[in-house]
């Protein structure tokens, strides 16, 4: 198993390729073209360690994703500034699991999903202009 490239990433690429394929006559043709496109992208990834996607594909992906990029220096600053609240950080995953378990309907989140749920709550609080 190649854990550097998750199956979800390949699945995302397929949906993006399918959504941006327009020259096909029918749904089966679009599916086939999406498979061929993703196969090419994954081959590039394996041979070059990267893939360059068309702008239309990137714009479609940006519709559904938000990301942040920070430097090592900023990470050190943030960790230092919150060191007094470190216990909160260590228990935030458990708190997220608890709050979703106690919600209606109840949901049992694994730790990985709890981190994603907590991040989603933070992103949902962003104010977009």
Question: Features of this protein?
Answer:
2 domains; 6 helices; mainly alpha; 129 residues
Describe the structure.
The protein has six helices and no strands. It is an all-alpha fold and 129 residues long. It folds into two domains: 7-62, no CATH class; 72-124, no CATH class. Helix 1 (7-20) crosses helix 3. The model is unreliable at 86-90 (pLDDT under 50).
What topology emerges from the helices and strands here?
Blueprint: H1 7-20, H2 27-48, H3 55-62, H4 72-81, H5 86-101, H6 111-124
Summarize, please:
Helices cover 65% and strands 0% of the residues. It is mostly helical and 129 residues long. Helix 1 (7-20) packs across helix 2 (27-48).
Radius of gyration: 20 Å
Number of structural domains: 2
Principal-axes shape call: elongated
Approximately how much helix is present in the residues?
55-70%
How much beta, percentage-wise? under 5%
Number of strands: 0
């Amino acid at each position: 198993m190649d854990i550097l490239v998750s199956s979800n990433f390949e699945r995302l690429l397929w949906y993006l390729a399918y959504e941006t394929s327009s020259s096909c006559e029918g749904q089966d043709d679009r599916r086939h073209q999406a498979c061929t496109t993703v196969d090419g992208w994954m081959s590039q990834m394996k041979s070059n360690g990267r893939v360059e996607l068309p702008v239309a594909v990137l714009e479609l992906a940006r519709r559904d994703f938000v990301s942040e990029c920070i430097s090592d220096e900023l990470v050190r600053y943030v960790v230092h500034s919150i060191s007094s609240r470190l216990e909160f950080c260590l228990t935030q995953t458990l708190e997220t699991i608890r709050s979703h378990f106690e919600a209606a309907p109840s949901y049992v989140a694994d730790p990985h999903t709890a981190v994603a749920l907590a991040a989603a709550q933070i992103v949902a609080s962003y104010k977009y202009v």
